[in-house]
Amino acid sequence: MKRLSWAFLALAALAADRDAKPEVDPAATKLLADARAARAVWKDFPGFTADLETNIDGKAVKGRVAVDSKGDVALQLPEDGAAHWAKGTLASVVGHRLDDGGGSDTPCAFEDDNADHPLGRAVHVLSDEFHSSYRIRDRQVIVVNREMKEARFSITVLENETNKEGKFLPACFVVNTWDKAGALTSSEAHRQTWKRVGAFDLPESVLVATAGADGKQEARSLKLSNLQLVAGAGK
């Protein structure tokens, strides 16, 4: 009986060791922190206004947009599917550029020892509800992976551009989404361009080409012109 107890304890110890969470790796943590620090962000952002044109599969609609200093988007556009998409898209574009103050480093660990992957070194965030993981190459976040209850998605950056300060702005990336069974449900190719106004790189255009699991394809675009910062800022 005593031998059985020792054997049981040994097996339990092995199982616990196998299921133990990886320890924080300072090198992995720094890799992600440095890549985040290399992104172009808007510090002391004053907000901006612009003329706006949306185009969904050839149906163009013109209007105006105002973005305040907190990143809230207000549209003067007919309330339809185009308006809903335009507002969500611009809110996402703007939100990714707002300065979050840096914050503390996010504890990470390397997923493997492969330092030569074409998309960069794989790291995953510890104790993250979305099971986030990244691939990082040349101080750039090239891949972002996240999981939700019913789906998971992956963003793969194909091209970044550098601004006046040498910081990175997204230029071309792909977003793939899978359902919980592992079936690909959509694939989106994104192209973004930027215009320097004062001290800020503002969005000038967004193009999204989408392919769905139903076989349908769709193209949507946003074009912003007459970009103006809120008076007295960004000079």
Give me some keywords for this one:
12 strands; single chain; 235 residues; twelve-stranded antiparallel beta sheet; alpha+beta; 46% strand; 19% helix
Question: Secondary structure elements and their pairing?
Answer:
Layout: H1 2-19, H2 26-37, E1 48-56, E2 59-67, E3 73-76, H3 81-95, E4 108-110, E5 121-125, E6 133-137, E7 140-147, E8 151-162, E9 168-179, E10 184-197, E11 200-212, E12 217-229
Antiparallel strand pairs: 1-2, 1-12, 2-3, 4-5, 5-6, 6-7, 7-8, 8-9, 9-10, 10-11, 11-12
Describe this protein's structure.
The N and C termini lie far apart (80 Å). This protein has one domain. The model has no long low-confidence stretch (mean pLDDT 90). It has 235 residues and is α+β, with helices and mostly antiparallel strands. The chain has helices at 2-19, 26-37, 81-95; strands at 48-56, 59-67, 73-76, 108-110, 121-125, 133-137, 140-147, 151-162, 168-179, 184-197, 200-212, 217-229. Strands 3-2-1-12-11-10-9-8-7-6-5-4 form a twelve-stranded antiparallel beta sheet.
Count of distinct strands: 12
The oligomeric state is single chain
Percent strand equals over 45%
Structure annotation, total helices:
3
Number of domains: 1
Q: Tell me the Rg in angstroms.
A: 22 Å
Structural class: alpha+beta
Backbone shape: globular
Biggest sheet overview: 12 strands, antiparallel
Overall pLDDT: 90
Note poorly predicted spans: none
Order of helices and strands, N to C? HHEEEHEEEEEEEEE
Strand order in space, largest sheet: 3-2-1-12-11-10-9-8-7-6-5-4
Query: N-to-C terminal Cα separation, in Å?
Result: 80 Å
| Helix proportion | 10-25%
